[in-house]
Automatic annotation (TrEMBL):
This is Pyridoxamine 5'-phosphate oxidase family protein. The keyword Oxidoreductase applies. Residues 25-124 form the Pyridoxamine 5'-phosphate oxidase N-terminal domain. The lineage of its organism: Bacteria, Bacillati, Actinomycetota, Actinomycetes, Streptosporangiales. It comes from the Bacteria. Keywords: Oxidoreductase.
């Protein structure tokens, strides 16, 4: 499948003098390889909510799951706008990514089986999910699955050159 190749735009306000925009393929590889993401949503009263979770990058989107009664699911039912972040916690090196988009619930069992297989391939057999009735099933519990296609991704590079690259998808 051909991947969308958005063009990166460097923001000189937050970049070293000699920095250049990062290529999307580098950011995409990091999204595929990253093991932990942080999901930011907004509670109905406007307060932020942030939680770590696992996610897989497939078909140019991030997929994650959560319990149907968890705060994340309640927040997304009220507003699908969310942010997923991943990267490194080192000041002098690394690339952090911020993925902005809207979470859409995935309920098609065939699509869910593909996503479930991807979770198990990436994270191992402890992350095996059966699929039934539009949900992941494991250990007697259900999890709802969301797809977040990026509207904008920001990349924050650190090292010999600091740079902020923005990729727009719409």
């Amino acid at each position: 499948m051909a991947h969308r190749q958005p063009v990166g735009e460097l923001d000189p306000r937050y970049s070293s003098g000699g920095a250049a925009p990062l290529g999307w393929e580098r950011a995409r590889r990091l999204l595929v390889a990253a093991e932990v993401f942080w999901l930011s949503t907004v509670r109905p009263d406007g307060r932020p909510h942030v939680a770590p979770l696992l996610a897989v990058w497939l078909d140019e989107a991030l997929y994650f799951c959560t319990g149907p009664t968890e705060r994340k699911a309640a927040n997304l039912a009220d507003s699908p706008h969310c942010v997923l972040t991943t990267g490194r916690n080192l000041l002098g090196e690394g690339l952090d990514l911020v993925v902005e988009g809207e979470a859409a619930r995935l309920t098609d069992d065939a699509a869910l089986r593909f996503v479930a297989a991807s979770f198990e391939t990436k994270y191992g057999p402890d992350w095996h999910f059966d699929v039934r009735d539009g949900c992941f099933r494991s250990g007697g519990g259900a999890a709802v699955v969301y797809r977040v296609a990026p509207s904008t991704v920001f990349g924050f590079a650190r090292g010999s050159e600091y740079g902020q690259t923005r990729w727009r998808f719409r």
